[in-house]
Every structure is written in structure tokens, then in C-alpha cells.
């Protein structure tokens, strides 16, 4: 099996996997970062979203072979201690129900707010539309993204 | 102010106490039953026996309180509400109470089930009494130490104070309290004095969730564990003939390929074991197998016909019959009959089914997300012909339940595979596996016929045609049962080889839509206000002596009036179309008003106003989350949920073809509680059933189209008008 060196949360990690292994499974099964979730495996739910060079992407769709030399950030590396404004907003609003989709939601929201720190309600809705929450906590997700934007502005 | 209640429960020993070897007091209690006589209290935390007790509370000698409860958490906030109730009556600060998930180690276990919105309702009395009893024992111990009468002492915030103003912390007297007699009478607080119940408490796992810590079954891992991906029959009814695994065995990471399913070396499933999830899934996809047709291959088109034939036929089971509906039809001014249809629905828990099993010579270790641990542990013991004492089942957090995790099929698979492979194994479903090996909400049809006379409903006949099972329990006695002279509910079913089961708010999730849409149409026919029609019908229910009628006309009136007031129903803003629905199920009364707008020529559900009577709201923050989720889930499945079969196989198996509601389609949910001091009832389910009905009624006003079928996006209109 080929060895790939991935830069994850600021650290170089090497993995021995077949070239078609999606980043999602390399993270979960080889590197032991299980915060990134599997929901559909076909790019439809956003549970697996991570940042690659600052953009939120679906880690179930990208093979490890294409990830060398890129900066990958997972939920575990979003902040040192869970105090990223988006994480803070999520706690304040008490967003999660079952919680399973939330890492993906947070990763989508944080990359979106990096690019658009002052979004309208419609922009928030469009940005979050790719992330399914089966528990349908959508009202709170929307509220938490808006709150995070406020926190970032401060 | 407090109410003293005789602790009759405790004399039957629903709780016991002991003093812990390492210091501190331990209280073991049962939520729903008395303890068995032989139930022994452990003296250390390592040996908590959850077969004898539902939960334990430890009060340490530093005053810290820990609750050990194996009650599963599936997003309903039970881990928050239960300790809040204990903390309230025990009178300790909420942030000094910690909850730890207990491990279930044996069989006969009482209702450790998170389903049916029942956890809080059933636990309410027992939890309060346990907290109050422990507090009284601590007070008694302190009083004895001071040599004063217990009645001169008070306790609050974990501190006991006597008449002279001297104080002792709970931790200072746990040793003495632990060996006291359990008092026969304890005082419960007046709800007016609550300081914890009714305040907002966040999700106990929030910190871990937002930082991505391992919590769920899919995150669980042990040394030497392998992953199993399972190839199951592609259609319901097919049998495995043969398979060729020669090339798959050579694939990277593949450890073994095992046929299983009947526990005798045969069966219709094939497990591919590999080192990692990706390797296992890929190898399973590559496996080639031959299948034979066992029973007829079913399709949605023939289900549709079979259900219609059942409704047209005569072989019904009558679940409730008041008066004489036939006579009412004969004497009617007008008869209206409508038929409503719904598809199968998969649960689609966000975390696909998975379970860990390590079956070894003297222990069966099971770990994962399950709603019925005790039943499942017993079934695994039975399957493997092992002593149930050998089964240790540990629950993880669940990425959704919705009824799917009541069934232990995936646990049995894990256990059988681990037994055959002689290895610790985690079975992992892909989304496709999860959606195509489901235990679905069955497709159902309702036909409702009403006799109208002198501007009122004089007869009501509801027929249900369902697959594999019919409505049960008290459902046939929900509104409008009791409100009508002539009323009848008949059910019939067709036996299918497609597996079906409970889905969030079983039966009512669709029945509510059928009945409530029907009422709206009746009101329209009679040219009366649909809200007033319901209020008038409720009058007859007041003071009923029929014990099967468990909804309350008064509580129903309260939620109706509250919803009308808050939504401005009857005077909508320009361009807003409102649909009204009131429903009772799972012991909770709910009324909802949906606001629909037309945007770009499409009806859009903008907002749902919800009025809820769930008694005392233990944790409003958690309650609101469940209510919002239930409403949006109800709107989503009514609008989009469509699951069809062709030749025995589901036609959709992932989110590209199966549509779930997303952010842009989700309405805003505005919730209002009826304030009272009645015992709390559950919220996991009751707000879902009314949502589809309220939306369909608003859509009718907005578009002129009445919906008779779910999902609404298909917008198939069936009209049958008789009379
Ligand atoms: S798991 Fe990647 S989008 Fe669903
Ligand atoms: S919180 Fe359960 S899927 Fe989003």
C-alpha cells in the first residue's frame, strides 16, 4: 500500500492506504479522528465535511491521493479547546439533538463565515442547505450561525 | 410550601440505600416497579447491578452527586431531564450533579427504553420521591448528630441548617444517612418552589459534540476489532443460492468472508470482514452472489391495489364501535367519504445502523446504539444459546432513533458474525444498507366516511388498511372517539415479507393527517369554521366516564385557544394561508397552525405555530428543541418522504433519490406552552403528527388542491365523493 503524508490540523500524518481511500475513512479508521462523520458516502449530507485549504468539502468524496500538500482541518482541529466562535454559538444555542450531524454543520458554517462574516438570513440558509440534519434542528442551526457571525464581528 | 406524600412506593422498596466502601452514600431505585426482594445493594461503584435497579445515585463525602443511569439518549434529552428532577427534590445545585451512563449486564431489565415519549412521564414520580427521600435521610442524619428534631432542620443547595443556624453539608452526614431506615413519608416540593425544574439546561454531551469527541457507536473501537460489511438479499423474499468469494478474499485488508443468518452455517447473508471500513465496504460491493426468488416479489403498485382491495372488502377487525354508523349513514343529509394514502418510510437515522460484538468463551460483550438493551441482550443470549448473565451490553450515544433502534436485528448480526469469526467485530451499515435493510413505517391507507345531518357529523367510520400490523393500544380511542354518537374504527392488514415496525409516532404520524384533513373538508362542506367545529365536538367529551378516552377536552380546548391566539388564526396577513390542526397522542395535547405563502408560483411553508400542553416543562431548552425537530420532521416527511418498491427491492437507497427536508425548506417553528402544574408528558413524538395535516390544509387554501396522499410534492389528487 502506498504511503501518503497528510497535513491534518497542522501536523504531518502519514497513512498507508490504497489510493482510492476517501479522506473520510483515512481520518476515521487510520488516523483515529472520528469527529468527522459518515452519513451517506456520496456527497449528499455533509456529515463528513472538513476544511481543505479553508474550503468546506465532503471528505467522503475525495480520495487520499489528492490530499497531499493540502491543509486539512477537522472538527478536532477547529480550535484548541472548543472555543471557536461557531462552537461557542453552538453551545449557547444548544443546537444538537442526537448530535451526529453537528461536526459537519459546524465545519460548513465556519468556512462559510470565514468568507462571508456578515451574512443575510438567506445566505445562511443557502450555505447550510447541503448539510442534512435528520433530527431537523434547522431552526437552531440557523440561529447559531447568525450568532457566530455576531461573535466574529466583535 | 410542600406536599407531604406517603411514600407507599418506598415501603414496597422501590429504593434501597447502602454505604459505599470508599465513602459516600448510594441509593438504588426503580423507576416503574418495586425492587425484587432479593435485590442487593452494591457497596462499590464497580458492581452496580442494573438488573435489580434502574438507576443509582451516589452522594460522595465531598457532597458531589453522581447519577448512574443506563437509560439511553437518542436526542430526547433524557440525560438532562432526569437528573434535573432528582437535583430539584434532593436540593443540590444542578451543576454539582453528574450523569454517567451505566452498563447493562443482564437480562430482566425494566423499561430501559427510549421510545414512546415515555421516559419522563414514567419516571416523574419515582425520580421526585427518590430525590426527596435521600434529602430526608440526610436531614435525619444531621438532626441526630445535633441531637435535635428533624423537623427543626431544613436543607437547600446541598446544606442542612438547624434552628440555631448551624450547618452541615450533605457530604458530612452521608455515612450516617446511608445506614438509616428509609422514611415512610417524604415531602415533595410544590411546583411553585421549583428552582431547577423549568430552567434551561443544555445537552450534557454538548462539549464533546462540538469538538468531535468519540461518542457514537460508529466511533467505538477496540484492539483487534475488525469491520464487517454485510451483503443481504437484494430484494425482500429472495434467498441466497450461491456466491463466489475467491477474488474478494484476495482484496486488500480482507480477513474473512462468512455466510450467516441462520446460525447453523447457512443463511441468506454474507459478511465480509476486513481491517477497515472502506476495505470492508469495497469488498462487499465486489462480491458476486446468486439469489433465488422465494416468495412473490412485491411492488408499490401492487401494495396500492392490495390496500384498496382491503378497504373495499369486508374482512375487518373492529377496534371501537359506538352507536350505529350504518344507521347514521342511512339517515344522513349527506355522506362524505375520502381515502388517504401514505408510502413506506425508512427511518434514516443519521448514524447508520452499527454494533460491536465480542463473543468469547465466557463473555459476550456488546457495544453500540440501541433503544431496547434488555430485550436485545436476552435475544442474543438465546440466539447463541448462552447464559444471559454472560451478556454485557453497553450503550453509546445514538445518532438518531426514530423507532429504528428499538429493533436489535443489527445486534444479532454482529453477535452471530463475531461468534462465527471468533473475533471482535463491528457491523457497519452503509447508507445503502441502512435504507434497504430497514424496518419501515408500513404503507397505509385510511378511508373515512362521515354522515352529515343538521349541520353536524352524525356518524363517523374510519377504516385502516395497513401492511403487517395495525394501529394498537388506545389509538382508536383518540379524538373524535367520545365526541360522536355513532363512531366506528375498523382495521385490516396484508402480510408482506417487507419488514415493518415502529416509526416516530407509530400510526398517528399518518392518521393525524388523514383525520384532520378530513375534518377540514367536512367543515368546508358544512360551511362552518373548522376550529369552532372541533370546539363544539369536544363538549360531548367533557366529564366522560369512558376510561379508554384519555385525552382531555379541557386540555384540548386550551391548546386550540392558545394556537388561535398566537397565530392570529382567522385574520392572516395578506398572502398568508393558514392551516389548523389539533391532535392528541403520546399523552400530550398539541395544536398547530401552519403559515403557507406562494413564492415563485410554489407553496412554501414559512412558519408553524405550536401550542403544547405537556404538563410541567422540566427543561424548556430541551423541550423546544424536540418540538421544533418534531414539527420540521413532520413537515419534511409529509412533503417529501417517498419510498417505493419494485420487484421486492426499494427504488431508493441513498439521499440522492430519497429526499429529506433541508435548511431552505424548514419552516420557522414558534412554540407556546400551556402553563400548568400537571405531571410532565413526553415530547419526542407528539408534535410530529399534526404538522403534515396543518400544512396540507394551508396548501389547500393557497393552491385550491386538497392532498390525499403523502408525499405532497407528488401532489396526486384522488377524489371520491359519494352522496
Ligand atoms: S458522508 Fe459525505 S456527504 Fe454524506
Ligand atoms: S442533530 Fe441529529 S442529525 Fe442533526
UniProtKB/TrEMBL annotation, chain A:
Domain 2Fe-2S ferredoxin-type: 2-78
UniProt xrefs under SUPFAM superfamilies: 2Fe-2S ferredoxin-like, CO dehydrogenase ISP C-domain like
PROSITE patterns in UniProt: 2FE2S_FER_1, 2FE2S_FER_2
Record has Oxidoreductase as a keyword: yes
Top-level taxon of the source organism: Bacteria
Membrane-spanning parts: none
GO molecular function terms noted in the UniProt entry: 2 iron, 2 sulfur cluster binding; metal ion binding; oxidoreductase activity
Keywords associated with the record: 2Fe-2S, Iron, Iron-sulfur, Metal-binding, Oxidoreductase
Record-linked PANTHER family: BLR6218 PROTEIN, OXIDOREDUCTASE WITH IRON-SULFUR SUBUNIT
Protein name as catalogued: (2Fe-2S)-binding protein
Organism per entry: Ulvibacterium marinum
From TrEMBL, chain B:
Domain Aldehyde oxidase/xanthine dehydrogenase a/b hammerhead positions: 211-295
One family name in Pfam for this protein: MoCoBD_2
InterPro entries referenced in this protein's UniProt entry, alphabetically: Ald_Oxase/Xan_DH_a/b (IPR000674), AldOxase/xan_DH_MoCoBD1 (IPR008274), AldOxase/xan_DH_MoCoBD2 (IPR046867), AldOxase/xan_DH_Mopterin-bd_sf (IPR037165), N-heterocyclic_Hydroxylase (IPR052516), OxRdtase_Mopterin-bd_su_IorB (IPR012368), TAT_signal (IPR006311)
SUPFAM superfamilies tied to this protein: Molybdenum cofactor-binding domain
Record-level Gene Ontology MF annotations: oxidoreductase activity
Protein name as it appears in the record: Xanthine dehydrogenase family protein molybdopterin-binding subunit
Source organism: Ulvibacterium marinum
Amino acid at each position: 500500500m502506498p504511503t501518503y503524508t497528510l497535513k491534518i490540523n497542522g501536523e504531518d500524518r502519514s497513512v498507508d492506504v490504497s489510493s482510492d481511500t476517501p479522506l473520510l475513512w483515512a481520518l476515521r479508521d487510520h488516523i483515529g479522528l472520528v469527529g468527522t462523520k459518515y452519513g451517506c458516502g456520496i456527497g449528499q449530507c455533509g456529515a463528513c465535511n472538513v476544511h481543505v485549504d479553508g474550503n468546506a468539502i465532503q471528505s467522503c468524496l475525495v480520495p487520499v491521493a489528492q490530499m497531499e500538500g493540502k491543509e486539512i482541518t477537522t472538527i478536532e482541529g477547529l480550535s484548541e479547546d472548543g472555543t471557536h466562535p461557531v462552537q461557542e454559538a453552538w453551545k449557547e444555542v444548544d443546537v444538537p439533538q442526537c448530535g451526529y450531524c453537528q461536526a459537519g454543520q459546524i465545519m460548513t458554517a465556519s468556512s462559510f463565515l470565514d468568507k462571508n462574516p456578515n451574512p443575510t438570513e438567506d445566505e445562511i440558509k443557502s450555505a447550510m442547505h447541503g448539510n442534512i440534519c435528520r433530527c431537523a434542528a434547522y431552526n437552531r442551526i440557523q440561529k447559531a450561525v447568525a450568532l457566530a457571525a455576531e461573535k466574529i464581528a466583535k | 410550601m410542600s406536599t407531604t406524600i406517603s411514600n407507599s412506593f418506598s415501603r414496597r422498596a422501590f429504593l434501597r440505600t447502602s454505604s459505599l466502601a470508599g465513602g459516600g452514600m448510594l441509593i438504588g431505585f426503580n423507576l416503574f416497579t418495586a425492587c425484587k426482594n432479593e435485590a442487593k445493594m452494591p457497596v462499590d461503584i464497580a458492581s452496580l447491578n442494573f438488573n435489580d435497579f434502574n438507576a443509582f445515585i451516589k452522594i460522595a463525602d465531598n457532597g458531589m452527586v453522581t447519577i448512574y443511569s443506563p437509560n439511553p439518549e437518542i436526542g430526547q434529552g433524557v440525560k438532562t431531564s432526569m437528573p434535573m428532577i432528582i437535583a430539584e427534590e434532593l436540593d443540590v445545585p444542578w451543576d454539582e450533579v453528574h450523569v454517567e451512563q451505566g452498563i447493562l449486564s443482564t437480562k430482566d431489565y425494566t423499561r430501559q427504553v427510549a421510545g414512546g415519549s415515555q421516559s419522563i412521564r414514567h419516571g416523574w414520580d419515582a425520580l421526585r420521591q427518590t430525590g426527596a427521600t435521600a434529602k430526608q435521610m440526610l436531614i435525619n442524619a444531621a438532626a441526630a448528630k445535633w441531637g435535635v428534631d428533624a423537623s427543626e432542620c431544613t436543607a437547600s443547595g446541598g446544606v442542612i441548617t438547624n434552628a440555631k443556624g448551624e450547618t452541615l453539608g450533605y457530604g458530612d452526614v452521608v455515612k450516617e444517612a446511608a445506614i438509616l431506615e428509609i422514611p415512610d413519608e417524604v415531602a415533595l416540593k410544590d411546583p411553585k418552589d421549583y428552582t431547577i425544574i423549568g430552567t434551561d439546561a443544555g445537552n450534557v454531551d454538548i462539549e464533546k459534540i462540538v469538538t468531535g469527541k468519540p461518542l457514537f457507536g460508529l466511533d467505538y473501537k477496540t484492539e483487534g476489532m475488525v469491520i464487517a460489511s454485510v451483503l443481504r438479499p437484494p430484494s425482500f423474499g429472495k434467498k441466497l443460492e450461491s456466491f463466489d468469494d475467491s477474488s474478494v478474499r484476495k482484496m486488500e485488508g480482507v480477513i474473512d468472508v462468512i455466510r450467516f443468518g441462520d446460525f447453523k452455517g447457512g443463511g441468506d447473508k454474507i459478511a465480509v470482514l476486513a481491517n477497515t471500513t472502506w476495505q470492508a465496504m469495497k469488498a462487499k460491493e465486489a462480491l458476486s452472489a446468486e439469489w433465488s426468488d422465494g416468495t412473490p416479489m412485491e411492488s408499490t403498485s401492487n401494495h396500492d391495489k392490495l390496500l384498496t382491495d382491503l378497504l373495499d372488502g369486508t374482512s375487518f377487525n373492529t377496534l371501537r364501535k359506538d352507536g350505529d354508523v350504518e344507521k347514521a349513514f342511512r339517515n344522513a343529509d349527506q355522506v362524505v367519504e375520502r381515502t388517504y394514502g401514505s408510502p413506506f418510510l425508512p427511518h434514516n437515522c443519521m448514524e447508520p445502523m452499527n454494533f460491536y460484538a465480542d463473543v468469547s468463551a465466557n463473555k459476550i460483550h456488546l457495544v453500540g446504539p440501541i433503544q431496547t438493551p434488555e430485550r436485545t441482550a436476552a435475544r442474543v443470549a438465546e440466539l447463541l444459546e448462552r447464559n444471559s448473565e454472560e451478556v454485557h451490553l453497553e450503550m453509546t450515544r445514538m445518532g438518531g432513533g426514530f423507532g429504528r433502534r428499538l429493533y436489535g436485528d443489527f445486534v444479532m448480526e454482529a453477535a452471530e458474525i463475531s461468534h462465527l469469526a471468533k473475533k471482535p467485530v463491528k457491523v457497519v451499515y452503509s447508507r445503502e444498507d441502512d435504507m434497504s435493510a430497514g424496518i419501515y413505517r408500513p404503507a397505509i391507507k385510511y378511508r373515512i366516511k362521515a354522515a352529515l345531518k343538521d349541520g353536524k357529523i352524525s356518524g363517523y367510520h374510519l377504516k385502516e388498511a395497513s401492511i403487517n400490523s395495525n394501529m394498537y393500544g388506545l389509538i382508536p380511542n383518540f379524538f373524535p372517539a367520545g365526541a360522536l354518537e355513532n363512531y366506528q374504527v375498523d382495521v385490516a392488514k396484508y402480510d408482506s415479507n417487507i419488514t415493518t415496525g415502529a416509526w416516530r409516532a407509530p400510526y398517528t404520524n399518518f392518521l393525524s393527517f388523514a383525520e384532520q384533513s378530513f375534518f377540514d373538508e367536512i367543515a368546508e362542506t358544512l360551511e362552518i369554521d373548522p376550529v369552532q367545529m372541533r370546539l363544539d365536538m369536544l363538549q360531548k367529551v367533557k366529564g366522560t366516564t369512558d376510561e379508554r378516552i384519555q385525552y382531555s377536552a379541557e386540555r384540548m380546548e386550551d391548546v386550540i385557544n392558545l394556537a388561535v391566539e398566537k397565530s392570529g388564526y382567522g385574520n392572516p396577513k395578506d398572502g398568508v394561508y393558514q392551516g389548523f390542526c389539533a391532535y392528541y397522542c403520546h399523552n400530550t395535547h398539541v395544536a398547530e397552525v401552519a403559515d403557507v405563502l406562494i413564492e415563485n408560483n410554489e407553496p412554501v411553508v414559512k412558519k408553524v405555530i405550536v401550542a403544547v400542553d405537556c404538563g410541567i416543562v422540566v427543561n424548556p431548552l430541551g423541550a423546544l428543541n424536540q418540538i421544533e425537530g418534531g414539527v420540521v420532521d413532520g413537515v419534511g416527511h409529509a412533503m417529501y418522504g417517498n419510498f417505493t418498491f419494485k420487484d421486492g427491492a426499494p427504488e431508493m437507497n441513498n439521499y440522492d433519490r430519497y429526499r429529506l427536508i433541508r435548511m431552505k425548506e424548514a419552516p420557522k417553528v414558534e412554540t407556546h406552552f400551556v402553563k400548568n402544574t400537571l405531571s410532565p408528558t413526553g415530547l419526542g413524538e407528539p408534535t410530529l403528527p399534526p404538522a403534515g395535516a396543518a400544512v396540507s390544509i394551508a396548501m389547500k387554501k393557497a393552491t385550491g388542491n386538497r392532498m390525499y396522499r403523502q408525499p405532497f410534492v407528488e401532489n396526486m389528487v384522488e377524489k371520491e365523493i359519494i352522496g
